[in-house]
Amino acid sequence: MTGRIEIADLPDIARGAAILGTGGGGDPYLGRLLAERVLRERGPVPLVAPASVPDDAVVVLTGIMGAPTVIVEKPPAGPEFRNALESLQAVLGRPVTHVACLEAGGLNSMTPIVTAAETGLPLIDGDGMGRAFPELQMVLPTLDGISTGPMAMSDEKGNAVVLRTVDNGWSERLARSATTDMGCSASIALYPMNGAQARAALVPGTLGLARRLGEVVRRCRERHSDAAVAIAAEMGGVVLFTGKVTDVERRTEGGFARGEATLLGLGADDGARLTLSFQNEHLLARRDGRVIASVPDLICVLDADTGEPVTTEAMRYGFRVVILGLPCHPRWRSAAGLALVGPRYFGYDHDFVPVEGLLAP
Amino acid sequence: MHIGIDVGGTNTDAVLMSGDTVLGSVKSPTTADVTRGVVAALEALARERPFDPEAVEAVMIGTTHFTNAVIEARGLAPTAAVRLGLPAAAGLPPLTDWPGRLRAAIGDHVYLCHGGHEFDGREISPLDTGELHRVADDLERKGVGTVALSSIFSPVNHEMELRAAALLTSRLPSLKVSLSHEIGRIGLLERENATIINASLLQVADRITGGFTAALKAAGLEAPLYLSQNDGTLMDAEFVRRYPVMTFAAGPTNSMRGAALLSDLADCVVVDVGGTTTDVGVIVSGFPRPATTEVDIGGVRTNFRMPDVMSVGIGGGSVVDLDGDRVEAGPRSVGFELSRRARVFGGDVLTATDLAVAGGLADLGDRGLVADLGEETVRRGLERITTRVAEIADMMRTSAEPIPAVLVGGGSVLLPDRLPGFDTVVRPDHFSVANAIGAAIAQVGGEVDKIVAVGRRSRKAIIEQAEGEAVEKAVLAGASPGSVRVVEVDEMPIAYLPGNSVRVRVKAVGDLRLRSGA
User: Fold this and answer.
1) Is residue A56 part of a domain?
2) Is residue A139 over pLDDT 60?
């Protein structure tokens, strides 16, 4: 997807981004409303392919950091997006030339559109994750040794903080504290990199992908056909399970909402049981005790009737859902990638299982 | 004794009850003028089962008037949306995602002011009284008499909403105000939307409750009037005047609650077959299972708790298509014209009701008029209807555990006494007026929903405190204190918040204190 992002593109991108959010990443609905308003005022945002970004470009990833539950009650003011970017630019000492998404999943698929529109900069069709993850260091640029810093963050009151840290884990830690003081929501601009780094490190085409996925859901709904099957085909993934949520157990651990959902099979999966483990995002799917999909592959939960993505927070007893397993970006499956975002990082005593393995006889 | 009335799109049903016993019931046509339809229903009820008006302790009404006023954007008051929270949330002003028609209907008066709280109770910014005085000036100049006030994190701290309301009404004493913390839960836009809808309905609420009160008076009834709300509990007329939006979706809730009462089942799947659609819902511990997604009302996103209902376009008036061996019913329906257009009533449209009569399931109209239908065709048609309803009913089940199905609604005669996938199928007495009976169930409730920083307190202490608050709210709403019990506790840990914050939601319900002192 290149050219530009217009208001008419936003609903599909938002819906697709919610699928890529794998149950987390915040509800893109608010982000879509924010972006619609800014695009109405400032016109479409130019969108460029990562491959066309020149070597000497100054690329910055942007997004919102905070608790989705807080953001739905205290949505952004608007100026904090520009403020974060300009605060970073001030310490970089040279103008930023391109904006890109920190993550493709959820709310943060939309917020970089706002930043780009507010600053007049082109947006790169690509992101740092190819999905959503809960922590700042969980991006492919980390695998390339690119630093989060200097990193800037701003709240809606006009406060701005710039962080220079020894590693990306520290950025996550310090930014988390500052976000809490800012009222659990902050606009962030980070991972400044040049064009060559961006071309190598970003997952290309993710906004375009989100738009295609959103379109698939919309079309399937119009035709009353199966969205899950169509998405699996589009992404080279697998329909893992169709069932009803019979139990959801939640607990707080280390500031994250962790838990397990149990599903009983319907139709072809009648008699089987699926357990989903989540920490903001869905991380592990076990069918009758056997792991059939795991992070960093995407485990997506869709409403069985409408094909609409279901967030981990919304998931409740009685929901009828389809579970999809979609392959992640290949670099996440490297040893370094799995060390950063594999099942063991999240505390699950399991090795990564590629979801396409299920396709084999 | 008490009376339950359901004002539906087609019929107004009325039942006379003593405790949980149905003494009499009638169905009469709904009229364009609310009052007249209710008066007619009460007269018909008195003919069917004469009663002493003085012995009636309460009248409970379920109505779709308020929902329809919003869907049709009709009769809504010019309403200002005043939000406290600047500089936060300015990127999404009130009415942002409203359909133009509805926005125009209430006048597009939006005010962003300072104030509001953070998740942990800190002020985002202090309340600016000068700013609010300017809002009052503006409202006065424009002649806007209704305000919806919302403050960021008011479900956690509502002090600023109260202060702003006091200031505005001190300036404009006749101003009608709705406060967001009294209407909705966490989720600013959805709560604000519900508050604006509520405020815009305040005038309609005066008119409708006035109409109902007049109808009762005309029927010689002095009993207090209650209306059903969407969670299956009641509110008195005074409450409806302040919170009309709470009546939304009371219809399906009432029919499910009525089915639970009639069948004496606290957990069941309820299949309500009407003229055009079949609604399937689930009763858990005596109350409808709520839907979990955002609810769209007339194109506006809100976060009400609505019952989780799946509908299929099959009802007594469904048009039947014969195509070779295939027999299909619905979604087209003759609706309220059934008694004129169905074959058994001398009409020329083959309906699901005709199949039921031909198949001996119902005794309506003239069976001779459908004698030409082949036995095999009738059997297949009825089987097809049963299969499709059973599929929906099965999808609504939440576990493999056996759960009974209860059939209600006038159209449920279409269904046999057995439903695939269900061991037990109950067809209770008075099934056709289950919704009016649901309206007559005299229970009131209280709900608490807030984010709490757990800190050093125990989880148990936090939940107990929330339960206490919910019980208190139920008693304030008119519940008899000894009867109140907590029916729902939901705690949700909140991601990325420090100090292990949880969102606690508690609902308590009790029996309505009746005049005789229940």
Assistant:
1) yes
2) yes
Q: Which two tokens stand for residue A176?
A: 């988390």
Q: Which residues of B touch A252 (CB under 8 A)?
A: 493-494, 500, 502
pLDDT in tens, B30-53: 777 777 888 889 999 999 999 999
**Is the minimum CB–CB distance between B371 and chain A shorter than 8 Å?**
no
Across-strand partners of B490?
B505
B503 CB-near residues (< 8 Å, 6+ apart): A69, B186, B449, B450, B451, B452, B491, B492, B494
Do the beta carbons of residue A137 and residue A160 sit within 8 Å?
A: no
In a domain, A33, yes or no: yes
Residues A289 and A148 in one domain: no
Nearest to A70 by CA among A130, A156, A128, A152: A156
A178 shares a domain with A104: yes
CB pairs under 8 A between A and B: 140
Q: What is the model's pTM?
A: 0.85
- A176 and A136: one domain? yes
Name the residue in chain A with its Cα closest to that of B121.
A183
- Please give the residue range of the domain that contains residue B323: 312-437
ipTM above 0.95, yes or no: no
The reply to whether B267 falls in a domain is no
Q: Whose CA is closest to B27, among B437, B412, B312, B362? A: B437
Of residues A33, A250, A318, nearest to B493 (C-beta): A250
**Cβ distance of B116 and A33 shorter than 8 Å:** no
The predicted-structure confidence for B392-417, as pLDDT tens digits, reads as follows 888 777 666 788 999 998 889 999 99
Query: With contacts defined as CB-CB under 8 Å, which chain A residues touch B118?
Result: 74, 183-184
